[in-house]
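W.,

You were right to be curious about this one. When I first looked at the sequence I had no strong expectations either way, so I just let the prediction run and decided to look at it fresh. Below is the sequence, 377 residues in total, followed by the output.
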Amino acid sequence: MVEKKEKSLVVIQLSGGNDAMNTIVPYTNGIYHDSRSAIHLTESDVIDIDGSLGFHPEMGEIKKLWDSSNVAVINGIGYPVPNRSHFRSMDIWHTAESESIAPDGWLGRTIREIDPSHNNVVTAVNFGRGLPRALVCKDVPVASVGDLETYGLMPDIKGKDQRENALNYFSRMYGPNQGRDAILDALSDNGVSAMIGADILSGANSKYSSSVEYADNPISNNLKDIAKVIFADIGTKIYYAQHGSFDTHAGELFNHAKLWKELSDAVGDFFRDLKEHGRENDVTVLLFSEFGRRIEDNGSGTDHGSGGVAFVLGGSVKGGFYGEQPSLEISEQVEGDMKYNNDFRSTYATLLDQWLGIDSVPILGKNFEQFSFIKKG
C-alpha cells in the first residue's frame, strides 16, 4: 500500500502587481490591441489556450501543466474597492481583511489552527528575506530561510569546540528565564524556536537527491529548497516564496518576459522533482499578485490597476478557467482597469477547506463562495 503523505501548500507571491492582461492574453480582442499599441502580444507571440486567450510566450512549462489539467486559472481575482497602493493592497491579501488593518496574517492564523500548541516550529517556512505579513501571527513561530545550504545557527563557526561553546551561550541567553520579564519570555520562545528550527531544517539538505537540474536564480533556488524540505518529511505544511518585481511601469515587454521565463521554468522543474519523488499529488501551489495593471499602456509599460489573475497548480488540481474573464468594454471598466469578478478570499477558502481540511471561517472571518478546483478524494 502506498504511504499517504501530508498535504502541503506552497504560496508564491508575485510582488509588484503582475500584468494579468499580458499573462492570460486576450489576443483576439480589438480593445486589447488598441489599448496597448506599445506592448501588445499577437497571435503569433502567445501560447494559445482556447482560440481567444493565450499564455504569455514565456509560460511554456506552465502550459505543459495546463495540458495535463493541473492548472486552475483564476480570472478577474481581486477585492471590493480596489486600492492601487502596493503596500495597502498587499496587506489586504496578506491579512484577508479589506476594510480594516488586521494584526495577523491569514497564513499565520492557519498555522495556529494546524499547530495550536506549537509542537512543530517548522510548520511553516518562508524562503527569502524577511517575513511576509501573511505568515505573521502572535505566538506563532515561522522559520525564514535565505539559502538552505548555509542555513543554521552560526554556520560560519566550523570548529566543533567553538560551535559547542557558541550554542551553549545561545541556549543560556535564550533559555527559560523563569518568568522574570514578558519581553524576555518572548525572546526566549523565539530564540529556542529558531535554534530547534535551524537544527531540523539543516538536515533536509543532506537527505536530498534528484536528477532535476534547477536554474541558478532566486525563485529556482527557493523552489529547490522547498522540494528538499518537502522530501525530508519534517511536518512542514506551509511554504512561502516571492518573485519579482512585477512593477512594470517601463520596459514591460522585456522585464515581464524575463520574470515569467524564470518562474515558469522553476515551477516546471519543481513539479518534475515532485513527480520523481512521487509527491506531485501532495503539493498545491498558489501564485498570486496584489493587483493587475491598467488596460491602457503608458508607452512602454503599464501602471497600477485592479482586477488580476491567480493560478493554482498541482496534481490534485482540477485544471481549467475559474472566475469570469473581465470584459474590456469601456462600460465594464473601472476607471481604466479590468473589473474584479471574484473575491480572492474565495480562493483562500477553497484551499483551506478543500485542500488543507481547515475550517476557513475562523481564519477569513466569514463564509466565502468556493471554487471546485480541488479534486475530490
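Here's what jumped out at me. The domain at 8-148+215-364 is CATH 3.40.720 (Alkaline Phosphatase, subunit A). And, maybe more interesting for your project: Confidence is low (pLDDT under 50) at residues 180-192.

Coffee later to discuss?

I.
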